[in-house]
Amino acid sequence: MLSRTRILAFLLFISVSVISSITMTDSVYSKDNDYKNEETVNVSVYEKINPAIVLVEAQLYEGISSGTGCIINKSGIILTSSHVVENASYIEVTTSKGEIYKAELIKNDNTNGDLALLRITPKKPLPTTIKLGDSSLVKVGQKVLAIGNPFGFNGTLTTGIVSRIDYERNKIQTDAAINPGSSGGPIINANGEVIGISQSIYNPDNNKSNIGIGFAVPANEVKKLVSAYIN
After folding, report:
1. What's phi and psi for 186, nearest 5 deg?
2. Residues 82, 114, 175, 182: which is the catalytic one?
3. Which pick of 12, 33, 41, 141 has the fewest CB atoms within 10 Å?
4. 26 in active site
5. CA–CA distance from 175 to each of 61, 140, 221 (Å)?
6. Is 75 a catalytic residue?
7. Angle at CA of residue 218, ends 108 and 69, nearest 5°
8. pLDDT digits over 176-221, tens only?
9. Per the residue annotation, which of 65, 135, 183, 200 is the catalytic one?
10. Among the options 83, 135, 175, 198, which is catalytic?
11. Phi and psi (nearest 5°) for 187?
12. Could you tell me what percent of the chain has a pLDDT over 70?
């Protein structure tokens, strides 16, 4: 027969094994949940914001300039980057549903903000608009999402973090992939609020592709330009 000491030791071993198994299962379950929750945020934000994102194409002397725009008013007011449309002889906007409109430049800030406002005349009120957040609350390390039309791939979603806040130049720096064609697109927080507008990238190959250093105009700067037009 087993001694009492051996029985107690055996029961203790079984108890420890069960607890360890439960802890490991809970840990794996927690990680799976975190992953699914992050996926859910990405999908939810994209589905909420993408209908308000448009393709902007401008005819310049040098050729076609392509960028991204954000619907800020259902009547047809579009926010984009000034450098995308400046000095354009013709501007065209394509909605997420594929509807194409001629656009008029109605406001231009090509200095500190690099922002511009366009007007289109939609056949019916546009379906959704972006919501501007408070960029003074932005923290380095927080999750962000970017939507744009890099290299003509419309409605592209990328994710990253706020990697730096450039207070001197009044820019939000992010490692979310921003490429040519993304200018004028939104940088969004996990709540679906636009905290910045993609402006430029920095890299050694003359800004031909992204290496994780992108800059956005803070939302509070954007508000100064668009306050009279927001729904």
Report:
1. -85, 145
2. 114
3. 141
4. no
5. 32, 11, 21
6. no
7. 50
8. 998 889 999 999 999 999 999 999 876 666 655 566 688 999 999 9
9. 183
10. 83
11. -105, 125
12. 78
Spatial contact of 92 and 103, defined as CB atoms under 8 Å apart: yes
Question: Which own/partner contact pairs does 200-203 have at CB distance under 8 Å and 24+ positions apart?
Answer: 200/114
Closest CA to 81 of 63, 66, 102: 66
Name the percent of the chain lying above pLDDT 90: 61
Domains and CATH numbers, the chain: 51-119 (2.40.10.10), 131-226 (2.40.10.10)
Residue 70 has pLDDT above 90, yes or no: yes
Segment 45-63 shows an average pLDDT of: 94
pLDDT average, residue stretch 95-103:
94
